[in-house]
Amino acid sequence: MLGTCNLNNPYCWDQGIWHTSLSDIDMTSITSLPATSIALHNFAKTAKLLAIFAAYAASSQLCAQTYTPIGTTGYNHDVIANGIGNAASSTSHGLDELNYVLKSLDWKLTDASQAQTSGLPLDGLIVSNSSPQQSYQLQSYAANNSLRLSSDNPNGTLVLTDPSAYRALSILATSGSGTSSFSAVVHFSDDTQTTLPIQSVSDWFGGLNYVASGMGRVSRYNNSVENNHTNPRLYQINMDLLCSDHNKVISTIEFTRESGPGILNIFALSGTDKNAGLVGQSDLFTEQSITLHAPLKGGSWSSDTPTVAIVDNTGKVSGIAAGQATITYTSPCGTQHTHMVTVANTMPTTTALSSTSAAAVLASSITLTAVVTNSNSNSNSQGSVTFLSGADASTPVAGCTGRPIEQNQAECTVTLNTIGHHRYVAKFSSSNPAIANSSSSSIGVDVLPASFLVTVSPLPADAAAHGGSITCSPNPVNTFTHARCTANPEPGYMLGSWAGDCSHTPSSSNACTLSNVTADQTVSAQFIQVQTSFTGTTSPSDGTAAGTATASFSGGGSTCRFDAGNTAFVTAPQTLPQGQTMPHGMLDFKLIGCDTTPVTVTITWPDQVQGLTKWGKASADATSSSHFQPSNLLVNGRTTTFTVQDGQLGDDDWTINGEIVDPVGATVQAALPQAVPVPTLGHLTLALLSLFAAGLAALGLRKRSSPLSS
């Protein structure tokens, strides 16, 4: 159903213009056309247009209000590459988990690099393609320009540089690496607040109802550029404020990322002024209708002169007779808004041209159909239609000059003999002076080759040098059909990321589908080495000489590998296990991409060891590290072997996340304290002691033999 222009509503009617974010529908100037004018649209999309008209007729909501940019601060990351140099040097963080960022039109890798053909505008002004009255002002590309909210950092606050009151707010945002949702709390200057409903934001590739797209992106890793005419995409989220809050001055808005796998990026705010009135055209004809748009839906409508114009509860104004009428809208908040309309008596003839296809294969045929109507007679059989082609639409199509009108239609069959874009015009003319001839409008048809080539990199012949290769089948691929590309990693390697026309495919999938091919395709991929061993120099702290040690593992799955940037030999902690030393320090290692456990880890140390200790959290709720023995420990000379389970004892993050963090160190029994020697006596001293002892013995014998004893 039609209504407020937001992510949940791609269609709205504004001053005679249908606006939609679906790029395959382009229809303008449906009402209030010059006398007998032509409105062109693609026949293949007629069903969509009829559905839109039906939805509009049943709608009870309003859209197309004017939203103007709101100045804000509080952005925490720069995700837009600009200027000259590496993308990483002009940004602070990737927009998504693959470390891609948006790019400005002025970004170049070097002075000699070719200028960008797509990118964000230099002035940073984004105008919604689903509602031209809605615009946003991006922050400077040379400063923080995104409020980037992830699962690790889910909260952020934007501060209004000029606090003001608004009836409605609109948020420009996108989500990297999947969808995300957020809530918002609006803080007012009177210290009150209101909480807005939770909103969902689509992934920046492939989401519907986008308001800006096709600006391209660049990798912070290797500066590779991806230009796509429909991706990436930015989205708008419109939210009405409560009536009681319309006159309150907004000071800050607090955002919280609520759920989803993606990384939320908020770029700008815009708002509807509290004094905004009715929006819509003022002139119409009898038997014609226009639609007025109110700042808030849900109110009531009235006309002060129903004999001239009437209005229904959706804001649809219908002309009855020539004259003027004042249309009044009373909002749910009790505020009244008025709009003067002027009704005239005549209604021009209109012609709608359609084609059986907007794109077709060379040598095929299409049928052009012109539908000619007049609001008074609903028919224009008193005339004919001439079909024209060429760059200036001045060359009559063979066999299609002065085609008769039967049941309001005239047809022309065209055989497509030349590749490229072809422009066609249907021009109505009548000999009846009471019926004005229609002006010329055009429709475009793209004539495509029968097949297209898929360029892949790296090729199978280059697999050894790049760690893998890409194959696509069929290649060439027939126009409007599909091709399947497969990433083939070499032993010891895995797919790191897709690029080119497969960039929408996650790295977890080795297969990519190219759908409905209508142009040459380019597919590439980056392969990364699965590092199952790590060699480094130990870091002893007790005077032991440093040496070479090697760690390896088995198990963990095909993508389990050492995270070289977070694996190193380090010194032992100050607290050593009782009675043990750690002569070779510790190995602080991290395994990533492990989808099965346990993992068996083997470490060969520079010298023989007697044991192994882990230094970390002995339980999930531990607040400090301690020493404990690993599971299934085996010690053989210089080699230690043990097992560790993801998210269990020994994995220091205690989380089942495919990552194992494990600081370990070899131990040796500490030496016992040395005994203190007792001093010994010399030979002469021993002899004198012996004589002294003998003398004492003789004296004792003499006393026992004295007369006193008889």
TrEMBL record:
InterPro entries, A to Z: Bacterial_rp_domain, Big_2, Choice_anch_U_dom, Invasin/intimin_cell_adhesion
Ranges of residues in domain Bacterial repeat: 464-529
BIG2 domain location: 280-337
Top-level taxon in the UniProt lineage: Bacteria
Gene3D superfamilies the record matches: 2.60.40.1080
UniProt KW keywords: Membrane, Transmembrane, Transmembrane helix
Chain segments annotated as transmembrane: 681-701
Entry protein name: Ig-like domain-containing protein
Pfam family, any one: Flg_new_2
